[in-house]
């Protein structure tokens, strides 16, 4: 990699000056519950409240604004299933440049509608993002439009780095910054900025365990493609780190954490309930790290800032994730109980549940299971509980009443 590909503090400060009139300086919010858990002051950097709902317009605007006039005239093209699409569409429209965005056929309707609303021409191609990227590359070669990569370009990295400059203004004594990480553009930019301006600050990248390309890549000393990915955090589900981000992350970020799916859903629920912030699963990754034992083992130097990188979530997915988060937090219990199919059987079951103080959310019957005797019925109960201990109390009460119980997934 040549010197042209390295990002310096001069480029980052130039990006900050360029972005100042158009990008929101997003707020920071104190989190008492996370501060108590971490044993030090914790702040949330709310990039979910940025224009288009994520940090992505910072890099997209900086990249497009730095194009020479002849390239601007031919427009820009991008491939994305979500936040990058909206960032490119908004940035291009703001600069009076045409944009074409290729999205997979299965892209969520809210993200599709938002990308169109920000001014892009949207074309849906293929089933996965790689198909859309191939189509975008072909379009760029055929039309002369400039392909705007989501993370693998110095101007993108410099634009994302401006998040760190704002954090230093807002929390001058910040000790640790946790950053959700996919391709690495945000992590790399913030790491470079903090290395130059506040070298004592610890920068920690956070990946979804089911889509963690960075640990293996850093161990190999080069970007390595991870195999199968399966995570709710689609915003950071990137199969291979970018070459430009990799160089900077390898030099400046010694710590990379991974978080599991339960941690992500619990973090999303905490942001919603306690901070009153809607955050997408990828955006909640840093909070998930703080809530998991992995972060407590780090001996974090405070104050800590967790970046909420985005808040664009399909309402249908949000509904499912709230249920998943409640279940993971021990506040939602679904059980299947076999009872006698005689009058009073159901009321006796509900009486046992009622004595535990659990609240019944839903009840349904089934008489068709092959494992059921002729005089038996299976009752599916969805219960609201007060936490893991209360959940265990409910299960113990049912067992003591000699019910056959299966906990549903």
From TrEMBL:
Which residues, by range, are in coiled-coil regions? none
Q: What is its EC number?
A: 4.3.1.19
Show where the ACT domain sits. Answer: 334-409
Q: Which cofactor does it need?
A: pyridoxal 5'-phosphate
Q: Which GO terms describe its molecular function?
A: L-serine ammonia-lyase activity; threonine deaminase activity
Query: What are the recorded Gene Ontology BP terms?
Result: isoleucine biosynthetic process; L-serine catabolic process; L-threonine catabolic process
The cross-references to Pfam families, in alphabetical order and at most eight, read: PALP
- Write down the chemical reaction(s) this protein catalyses: L-threonine = 2-oxobutanoate + NH4(+)
Instruction: Please provide the record's keywords in A-Z order.
Output: Lyase, Pyridoxal phosphate
Q: Which domain of life is it from?
A: Bacteria
Q: What does the function comment of this entry state?
A: Catalyzes the anaerobic formation of alpha-ketobutyrate and ammonia from threonine in a two-step reaction. The first step involved a dehydration of threonine and a production of enamine intermediates (aminocrotonate), which tautomerizes to its imine form (iminobutyrate). Both intermediates are unstable and short-lived. The second step is the nonenzymatic hydrolysis of the enamine/imine intermediates to form 2-ketobutyrate and free ammonia. In the low water environment of the cell, the second step is accelerated by RidA.
As for family, the record states: Belongs to the serine/threonine dehydratase family.
Q: PANTHER family, per this entry?
A: L-THREONINE DEHYDRATASE CATABOLIC TDCB, THREONINE DEHYDRATASE, MITOCHONDRIAL-RELATED
Please state what the protein is called.
threonine ammonia-lyase
Organism, per UniProt? Nocardia tenerifensis
């Amino acid at each position: 990699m040549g010197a042209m590909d390295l990002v310096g503090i001069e480029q980052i400060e130039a990006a900050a000056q360029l972005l100042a009139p158009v990008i929101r300086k997003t707020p920071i919010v104190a989190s008492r519950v996370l501060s108590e858990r971490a044993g030090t002051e914790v702040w949330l950097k709310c990039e979910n409240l940025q224009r288009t709902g994520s940090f992505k317009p910072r890099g997209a605007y900086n990249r497009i604004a730095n194009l020479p006039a002849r390239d601007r005239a031919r427009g820009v093209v991008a491939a994305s299933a979500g936040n990058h699409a909206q960032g490119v569409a908004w940035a291009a429209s703001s600069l009076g440049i045409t944009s074409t965005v290729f999205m997979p056929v299965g892209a969520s309707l809210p993200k599709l509608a938002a990308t169109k609303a920000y001014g892009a021409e949207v074309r849906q191609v293929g089933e996965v993002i790689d198909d859309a990227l191939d189509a975008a590359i072909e379009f760029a070669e055929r039309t002369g439009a400039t392909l705007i990569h989501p993370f693998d370009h110095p101007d993108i990295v410099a634009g994302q780095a401006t998040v760190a400059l704002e954090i230093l203004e807002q929390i001058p004594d910040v000790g640790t910054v946790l950053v959700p990480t996919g391709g690495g553009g945000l992590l790399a930019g913030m790491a470079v900025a903090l290395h130059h301006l506040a070298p004592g600050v610890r920068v920690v990248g956070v990946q979804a365990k089911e889509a963690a390309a960075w640990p293996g890549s850093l161990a190999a000393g080069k970007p390595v493609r991870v195999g199968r990915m399966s995570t709710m955090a689609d915003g950071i589900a990137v199969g291979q780190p970018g070459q430009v981000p990799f160089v900077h992350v390898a030099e400046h970020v010694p710590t990379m954490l991974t978080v599991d799916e339960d941690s992500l859903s619990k973090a999303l629920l905490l942001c919603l309930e306690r901070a009153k912030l809607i955050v997408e699963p990828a955006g909640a990754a840093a909070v998930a790290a703080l809530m998991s034992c992995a972060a407590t083992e780090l001996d974090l130097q405070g104050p800590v800032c967790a970046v909420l990188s985005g808040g664009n979530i399909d309402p249908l997915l949000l509904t499912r994730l709230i249920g998943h988060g409640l279940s993971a937090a021990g506040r939602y219990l679904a059980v299947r109980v076999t009872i006698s199919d005689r009058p009073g059987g159901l009321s006796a079951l509900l009486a046992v549940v009622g004595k535990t103080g659990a609240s019944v959310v839903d009840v349904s019957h089934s008489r068709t299971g092959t494992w059921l005797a002729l005089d038996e019925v299976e009752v599916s109960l969805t219960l609201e509980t007060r936490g893991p201990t209360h959940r265990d109390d409910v299960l113990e009460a049912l067992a003591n009443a000699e019910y056959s119980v299966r906990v549903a997934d």
